[in-house]
């Protein structure tokens, strides 16, 4: 009986650990960014599509963070007198990238790729929340294996473990 109880206890510890790994809670902490950026203005007010700035979302694993060059495409003129745009201008002049702080994350054992999801017509808000309403970006949704599996079942997408866990 002792070995069985130990075995069951070990299984519970493993299950809790796996649950914690695959059930990351939303990160509602607002990280301090090098430049104050508002999706609420860009995506909400001005209706700029996500893929305009996140140019790799349709063809790569990562959606990509906009380059200083992409930002300056609009901000050479738009808002040039604002302090945050002046920070952007300084980076542009110094040929330095913006050192954004990552907001959304997945466990290291997950290999998520944006492109199949974007090409399947899944809206960014499905996983990232209503970014068009966010003045400061947060991880709005718990990114859990259960959520992913439920969506894959609903969309009749592959449930092959090796697609996400290589």
Q: How would you characterize this protein structure?
A:
This protein is mainly alpha-helical and about 170 residues long. It has a domain of about 120 residues. It is about 45% helix and about 0% strand. It is built from nine helices and two strands; from the N terminus they run αβααααααβαα. It has a two-stranded antiparallel ribbon. Helix 4 crosses helix 5. The longest helix has 21 residues.
Write the layout of secondary structure elements.
Blueprint: H1 2-22, E1 23-24, H2 39-45, H3 50-53, H4 68-75, H5 83-94, H6 114-119, H7 125-128, E2 143-144, H8 145-155, H9 161-164
Antiparallel strand pairs: 1-2
Helix pairs in contact: 4-5
Average pLDDT across residues?
Answer: 85
Give me the side-by-side strand order of the main sheet: 1-2
Query: N-to-C SSE series?
Result: HEHHHHHHEHH
**The biggest beta sheet, please?**
2 strands, antiparallel
Pairing-aware structural class of the strands and helices? mainly alpha
Could you tell me the strand content as a percent range?
A: under 5%
Q: Which stretches are low in confidence, meaning pLDDT under 50 for 5 or more residues running?
A: 7-25
Number of strands: 2
Radius of gyration: 20 Å
- Please, what is the oligomeric state? single chain
Morphology: elongated
Helix content: 40-55%
Q: What distance separates the N and C termini?
A: 38 Å
Summed up, the helix count is 9
């Amino acid at each position: 009986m002792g070995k069985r109880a130990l075995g069951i206890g070990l299984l519970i510890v493993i299950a809790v650990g796996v649950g914690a790994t695959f059930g990351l809670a939303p990160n509602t902490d607002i990280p301090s960014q090098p430049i104050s950026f508002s999706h609420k203005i860009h995506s909400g007010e001005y209706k700029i599509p996500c893929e305009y700035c996140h140019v790799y979302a349709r063809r790569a694993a990562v959606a990509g963070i906009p380059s200083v060059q992409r930002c300056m495409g609009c901000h050479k003129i738009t808002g040039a007198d604002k302090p945050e745009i002046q920070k952007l201008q300084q980076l542009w002049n110094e040929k330095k990238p913006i050192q954004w702080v990552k907001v959304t994350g997945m466990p290291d054992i997950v290999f998520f790729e944006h492109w199949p999801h974007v090409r399947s017509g899944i809206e960014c808000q499905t996983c990232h929340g209503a970014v068009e309403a966010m003045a400061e970006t947060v991880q709005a949704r718990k990114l859990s294996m259960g959520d992913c599996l439920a969506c894959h079942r609903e969309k009749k997408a592959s449930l092959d473990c090796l697609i996400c866990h290589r």
